Every structure is written in structure tokens, then in C-alpha cells.
Amino acid sequence: MFEEWAKAPEGSGREGSDGLSGGGEEPFSEHSEYIERLLAGVTSDMPANEDFAGTQAYINAEAYSREEEPEVQPEAASEAGEPSEAGASTEAGEEAGGKKKSAAGVRTEIYDWIQTLVSTLLAVIIAFIFLGRQITVIGDSMFETLHNDDKVLMTNIFYTPEYGDIVIIKAQSFGETPLVKRIIATEGQEIDIDFVSHTVTVDGAALSEPYIYELTSENGDFKGPLTVPEGCVFVMGDNRNHSTDSRFERVGFVDKRNILGKVHFITVPGKNDYGIRDWSRVGSAYKTTP
């Protein structure tokens, strides 16, 4: 392009371009050699010339504009270790999405745990509602294990009486009022009580009774040793000297069919003499193991 312009005849309208002033004479005649050398790419041994600076800059610009600049794709930039803007945005989006998914997963897991716990609790409550009963303790015959006005949870599903069980029983002489006692001996076992040494023996072995409030001194109508009849149990209260139980003819041996159920938990503690409930007592009725 510039080569054609440089060779154009005088007066062709090239005067004044790129800071070059024109007149009646040929402005490029004295620089024709330099122009040809520039077009040929030979510039290392050319002298500096202020008037020629504009011409050289124009030629360089023309040469540069003809070069093809390779287009750098985002993938090539990423391969060179310089992530593109689009790639960075994608990675940021993926990271944010991952955090959201992680938070959602945690919330889902917590919800599942809560749902499981609530379902289990409801199942237990429903089971005890239909299979068990809440009974209010009346009197102090089971003190200190159970107190007057304690509310206890009782069940009788698939129950087999065993030594040490706290049970709710019916006795004909007490009418509809249930009694709460502890099983000391079961059918076929021999029981004896020494009211001098305050020792209770079953099948000749002295019992260890950490659950009693005081030593057994009250004999009632008991004359031993006695063998518990088939289908029956022998019961006594933990407050031995303030309990009407199998030592008395009024109660005697208790038919297993008159056992309403086994006590498991204290649900609501009764009030003491000062009208205060000791909530630390809530829980298992067997904190002292026989």
C-alpha cells in the first residue's frame, strides 16, 4: 500500500499525510532509498532523522496491521496455567454449588435423626399407653424405693414373676385398692424369716437386701418355714415394719393371676412433707439392685 503511494506522481493528494508537509517539490525523493530499505526490512544501519520519523512510524504500523494475531482460546489459556475468566466463573459456581449441596445434606441428616428419635419416642409412648398403665402409689410400705403419691409405670405384657420384681397386686381384703410390693419368693421355693437376726432366707440361703428401709422385725402372722404354692408368689414391702404383705393372713400368698403388672419407672415423684417433688428420682424403680 505505502509503496504505491510513494511512487504516485506529484500532485496526487498525498501532501500533509502523517505529519509530512508538502510543496511543489517531491518530498520523498531524498528518502526513496530509505523507504525502499524500510519496505525490505533493512533498518539497522539507517541514520536517525526527525523528518523521517513519521514515515517510519507509518510503515511500521502498516507492517504490524498485516500480521495475523493468533486468537487465544480460554482452553489454551487454561493449559498455560492462566485460567480464563469463564473458567474461573465456572469453578466459583461449582464451589458455591458444592457448599449449598453440603449444607443441604447436613440439614437432611439432622432432620432424619430428629424424625427417627421422635418416631421412636412416639412408639414407646403408644406401647405403654396400650400395654401398660400408670399407677399412683398409696402409702409408705415401699419406702424408700417408692414414696407415697409417686406415679409409676407398670406393664404386664409377657410377664413372668421373678425374685426382686416390684409388682402391683390385688388382694380381696383390700377390695379395688391395688397394693405395691416386692416379690421375695416364687412357686416351689421355701421361705423362712428369723425375726431375731432379722434374716430372710430362701431355699436355705440368706438374702442380701440392700433395698429395705429397715431390718425385718415385724412377724405378723408368719410361721415358717413355708413353701410357696404352685402359681403363687410371696411378697413383702421394702419398709418391712410398716407393710401389710404375705406375712399377714389378710394378704398371704398371692396368686399370679392377681398380679396386675411389674413396675418399671417412676414417672412423677410424690411430694415430700414440705410439698416439694424430688425430680432426681424420676427413672428406673430399680436403682438399688437386689
Structure description:
- The protein folds into three domains: 2-66, no CATH class; 80-129; 137-284, Umud Fragment, subunit A.
- It contains five helices and twelve strands.
- It has helices at residues 2-6, 32-40, 53-66, 74-79, 85-131, and strands spanning 132-136, 151-155, 166-169, 179-186, 190-194, 199-202, 205-206, 226-227, 232-236, 254-255, 259-268, 283-284.
- Strands 1, 2, 3, 4, 9, 10, 11 and 12 form an eight-stranded antiparallel β-sheet that branches.
Rg on CA atoms, Å = 54 Å
If helices are DSSP runs of H or I spanning 4 or more residues, what is the number of helices? 5
Which CATH architecture of the largest domain would you pick?
Answer: Ribbon
Q: Would you report the number of β strands?
A: 12
Helix content: 25-40%
Largest sheet properties: 8 strands, antiparallel
Average pLDDT across residues? 77
Compute the number of structural domains.
3
User: How does the overall form come out from the CA principal axes?
Assistant: elongated
Helix-strand topology string: HHHHHEEEEEEEEEEEE
| pLDDT < 50 runs, ≥5 residues | 1-28, 74-81
The CATH superfamily of the largest domain bears the name Umud Fragment, subunit A
* CATH fold description of the largest domain: Umud Fragment, subunit A
- End-to-end CA span: 115 Å
CATH class of the largest domain: Mainly Beta
Structural class label: alpha+beta
What amount of the residues lies in strands?
Answer: 15-25%
Give a short synopsis of this structure.
This protein has helices at residues 2-6, 32-40, 53-66, 74-79, 85-131, and strands at residues 132-136, 151-155, 166-169, 179-186, 190-194, 199-202, 205-206, 226-227, 232-236, 254-255, 259-268, 283-284.
